[in-house]
């Protein structure tokens, strides 16, 4: 290899013959000659990383095929697969702007499959996520068509499905290995009302949207059942051929999606290391952020089916993305105490920023519906001592792209006002969230929409705080809430809000004077 640069002129002149010879050697190499195939792949990598990479452009369909590059030998596939995909990722990254839509679609399918292949190492999966990000960048430079948007959605859905595998399968294993010394319990329930033994009073739930039926997608296939008794449209002969054999042990029957996922899909995959899991989550969320940005500028869907499908994908992205953020709570070594809540690594900041930016670029109606449904889930994860998730809340409150997030969160907190009569960790969090909302609205950067929103809630906040404080065992939370409200509007920067507060001020002062006399 060291002498090859001296003959680059000769190699360039005979480049097509050299490329054809390398491909024929790969196709005709016997399956058991692993050393020879490795040397040919090393030569192929050298040529593709030099000036001859353009000569391999017509050979891309053959280079992407494992059957052509790795052969049919089991040992060759197991030992050379990582090398092959690393070489392909580097080649395709540099040639991404030269290939057409059909080839990009084929490459995206191959590397989406690689991202989910449990036989690949975590480095290959991270590399696949980064390459898919590069392919999405190439798609953004093409003309916006329905097929381009569909391909971007398939890439996004593949990453969301990978987040689900990490959240359901890898995260419990990581907490068993690294979470023994920290005060944190990983929970994979979706919403606060899904917790076992949790009964939320009906009068504290205001306008909770009904749970929609999931549409079929890449990770929502119906449960697999042995000897299903449901009627089928196929013939009895076809049903007999397609029926799964009965299990040898009765206790091995899997009925839940999580059990099927663990037993069939991820059982052979080695558990991720903590550093690899963090990197994988970070790059997946970065790809989701870029793809979502491209979806915003592409042609929007016209039919209801695609709108519903996209809403379902973003709903699962919020759910599993927030669950995967728990990986940054874990220490990097075993038997190590938990990092302080105010200290965050660069990877965690990048992942949080990517997850927040995804939802600041989606359609406003989709954003509102998702967070009205999953606000309790987000706050429950914050309460579960994943305090850095508050950065997502702060991002939504200060960004003008989603001015109605404050209204959604304030409506949720108002439905929990009665719970503030006692002081515990959860009510302390509720009061803190009230303060964050009031301070964000009281800042000079808040718009007129935020002022009008809080103006509509102002009489109800004052009424509930004063009435509930009379009967509460610990009324301090209500007075802390009122103090933060007064501080946010005391500067008089918001004319509409300040004018509404002046109308309510006499009654409030009369109430406080009577309360002082009673005390």
From TrEMBL:
InterPro entries given in the database record: ARM-type_fold, DDR_Repair_Kinase, Tra1_central
GO CC terms in record: NuA4 histone acetyltransferase complex; nucleus; SAGA complex
Positions of region (Disordered): 229-255
Biological process according to GO: DNA repair; regulation of DNA-templated transcription
Domain of life where this protein originates: Eukaryota
Protein name: FAT domain-containing protein
